[in-house]
Design a protein that fits this description.
Blueprint: E1 25-28, E2 32-35, E3 41-46, H1 54-66, E4 72-79, E5 83-90, H2 101-120, E6 132-135, H3 139-155, E7 168-169
Antiparallel strand pairs: 1-2, 3-5, 3-6, 4-5, 4-7
Helix pairs in contact: 1-2
Length: 176
């Protein structure tokens, strides 16, 4: 990650301070969810209960990787024993609903839950229903979230350096 990059170059969060109200979609369940086309999002979702084994964490990470460069761009992802953090940007599509953040998360959580239940010979919800998401508003916040995600396994004492954690994935900033 290059510290000197400007926010208006690759890596820009896409969230302009002057966004028009009709460009910003705000919904609410238990948590507020803001949507603004072209933005990066910091996302966290948690297991309903228990922990993931190392093998299960890799299954979840493989699910996240599956639609990278197709439906979204992942800058960094980490799968922890009981939660997941992502820094991602949904790709625009002709039908915005196709690649909306909620559809992306539904796909990741749904498919990984199916895989986990199959491998465990269980049924039922694996993930908490609602995820936390936040529009990343500027390049400083982008770097802060990137560093937060990278350091998560170190803080949890799962490794000594982020690069040592098998379930940390950093494809980097979008090409182009």
């Amino acid at each position: 990650m290059k510290e000197g990059k400007k926010a208006n170059k690759i890596g820009s969060t896409g969230f302009p301070a002057c966004a028009q109200k009709d460009e910003l979609l705000i919904t609410r369940r238990n948590l507020p969810h803001w949507r603004f086309a072209g933005s990066f999002y910091f996302v966290t979702f948690r297991l309903k209960s228990g922990n993931l084994s190392a093998e299960e964490r890799m299954m979840v990470l493989d699910t996240i990787k599956h639609f990278h460069k197709i439906r979204y761009w992942v800058t960094v992802a980490v799968v922890m024993p009981d939660h997941v953090h992502l820094l991602l940007k949904p790709f625009p599509s002709e039908s915005y609903a196709d690649f909306s953040l909620s559809k992306i998360l539904q796909g990741i959580k749904g498919f990984s839950a199916w895989q986990l239940n199959k491998s465990r010979s269980t049924e039922g919800a694996v993930w908490q229903e609602e995820s936390f998401d936040r529009i990343v508003r500027d390049y400083d916040e982008y770097l802060e979230k990137w560093n937060y995600i990278r350091s998560n396994p170190v803080k949890a004492e799962l490794c000594h350096a982020p690069e040592d954690y098998a379930c940390l994935w950093e494809p980097g900033e979008p090409e182009g």
